[in-house]
Amino acid sequence: MKKNIILVFSSVLLGILFTFFILNKENIYAKEEYTVYAFQKGAYSTYDKAYQNINDTSAIIVNENNLYKVYCAIYKDMDLVNNMLEYYQNKNINIYLKQIKVSASFYQALEKYEELLKKITDNKNYEQINQSILNLYLESNGVL
Predict the structure, then answer these.
(1) What are φ and ψ of residue 52, in 5° steps?
(2) Fold of 33-140
(3) What is the pLDDT of residues 119-144, one digit of tens each?
(4) Which of 12, 13, 37, 120: CA 20 to 30 A from 104?
């Protein structure tokens, strides 16, 4: 009888330990986030004001903390970030460089897009890839 109680108790304890270990592992992967750089052109109190300030460049409007923020690019690669900062400075466009958190799937897709960006020289292709990155960001955050 004593052996059965010890066996049941140790089995339950072992089951609890395995369950705790497995559940903690799943939570680690579910919360995995990465930091990237968003090029913010402005923050506005209404969507209409944000939309009016997009101009002719590719951009998206993101609602964060009751403000409508206009992002014109999102990158992780520091060479691309520095090139874009220089580009906007040369065009006299004020940009606020902001770190944002993104999912692992967006981060991995961004890496592939950035590889393409490094290979192109045509501005039209650049704009299409940049807009694809921005659209992917909206989709990955459940905005579209």
Answers:
(1) -65, -25
(2) Alpha-Beta Plaits (3.30.70)
(3) 887 777 888 999 999 999 999 876 54
(4) 120
